[in-house]
Amino acid sequence: MTLFAPRLPPRFGHATFARMMHDDSATVAVLRARVLAFARERDWEQFHSPKNLSMALAAEAGELMEHFLWSDSAASATVAQAPAKREEIADELADVIIYALEFANITGIDVAAAIDAKLAKNAAKYPVEKARGRSDKYTEL
Ligand SMILES: [Mg+2]
């Protein structure tokens, strides 16, 4: 089932991806195209319903959280920097983001526009003068 069939830009071959896959050079469009190409090569789009992708994203978020389970906040910062754990943690973060990008691909949601719109809503809920330095929910400010 495909709700929205994104098109893979022809310029995005494997060599192009290899050159661009770093935070300072990859755009959201490049990342979306990269995960789309990966799924399409395997004929996995048929499994990419919003239900399945949202659940997979949550499951991967759980796998990321598992690395920090039972650690206090200070210890979790140490765990995140531990060389022995760093690759595993990066893999779980990548899984979360990959599923989020696949969700955007299958639904046609523009990630940058969605982030911009949500930050505007968050800014209204959490005005700097009320929220600065506080972790309270907006209903408690
Ligand atoms: Mg995982």
Could you give the topology of this structure?
Elements: H1 14-20, H2 28-41, H3 50-66, H4 73-81, H5 83-107, H6 111-125, H7 128-131
Helix pairs in contact: 2-5, 3-5
Bound molecules: magnesium ion.
Task: Report on the architecture of this protein.
- The protein is 65% helix and 0% strand.
- The protein is mainly alpha-helical and 141 residues long.
- Helix 2 (28-41) crosses helix 5 and helix 3 (50-66) runs antiparallel to helix 5.
Ligand catalogue: magnesium ion
Q: Return Rg in Å.
A: 18 Å
Strand content: under 5%
The number of helical elements comes to: 7
- The N- to C-terminal Cα distance equals 44 Å
Sheet/helix structural class: mainly alpha
Main beta sheet strand tally, sense and closure? none
Order of helices and strands: HHHHHHH
Using DSSP, what is the number of strands?
A: 0
So what's the overall shape?
globular
* Share of helical residues: 55-70%
In the predicted model, the low-confidence regions spanning at least 5 consecutive residues are: none
Q: Report the average pLDDT across residues.
A: 91
